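Re: [help] complex structure
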Amino acid sequence: MNKMNSKDGIQIPDKAHQDLVKHMLTAKETTKDRPTFLRSIYYWAGSIAAVLVLGVFIFNGLTKAPNHEVEITEDLAWDAYQSGVVELTLEDASQLLDNASIDEFINDLNI
Amino acid sequence: MMPETHEIAIHEAWSAKAYDQAFSLLATQHASDFYRTAVRIVLDHAQAQDVVQEASIKIWKGLPAFQGRSKFSTWAYRIVVNEALASLRKSNRQHVALEDLQIGQPDSPYFEADEILKALYQALSMLPEKQRLTFQLRYFDEKPYAEISEILSTSVGGLKANYHHAVERIKLEMSRLNSEYTFESNE
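Output below.
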């Protein structure tokens, strides 16, 4: 497989491509840990917990309860895990959770 | 194997929880693309290899969390781009001196460019980050806007605006570098 691309001037010959494939596989092997659903739950739980704490702080500081919720998706949790940062405006955060959602997520975190 | 066939094979392996196989297929198909994407952002061969390594670990660990809402490669590209940007910010390489003759060009053994392409990279280095990334994925990689939208978490409309502004700025910067240089985006 010769990954030629004249548009960006980066021409990667077969040998180099194979080296890059090995590089990726070696990186995977060095992690030792195998991906498991439980591990991923921990990542999500950690991320969700961080968002939850932020949401609760801001939620408690507001006088008006939000009329609708913003769903915490797994993608959002994954973004948080990946970057370590969730970018939320005060308005977004204030819409983050209601009491039922808080209970639900606390229950989920205790699984 | 065609790219879409490869994507299906990766998805089938992932569905069967054969994560080793899914990862190997992804690496075999996209290792060069990931490196290419990384080195265009960080502009350094060794740093790009580190980015691919770190991204590989995150992809591997994140396989069970993959939602299947996008293509595997799109999801993995997103991780590579984010890792490259994080690496770039750590190293502060975005503040390249203007007098640097190699401004904006990848420092890679696989990079070969004529004067016009070098000028294009120099013009690219003048762009804001989002415009630069949008341009690279659209013009260099010819990715559809819908896929770029998932990689950069930006609306298609926003990407089209970014691309338009990028092209206009590139035309301007290239003509400043050499009045004989022109740029056409074919869009």
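The first helix of chain A runs from residue 14 to 30.
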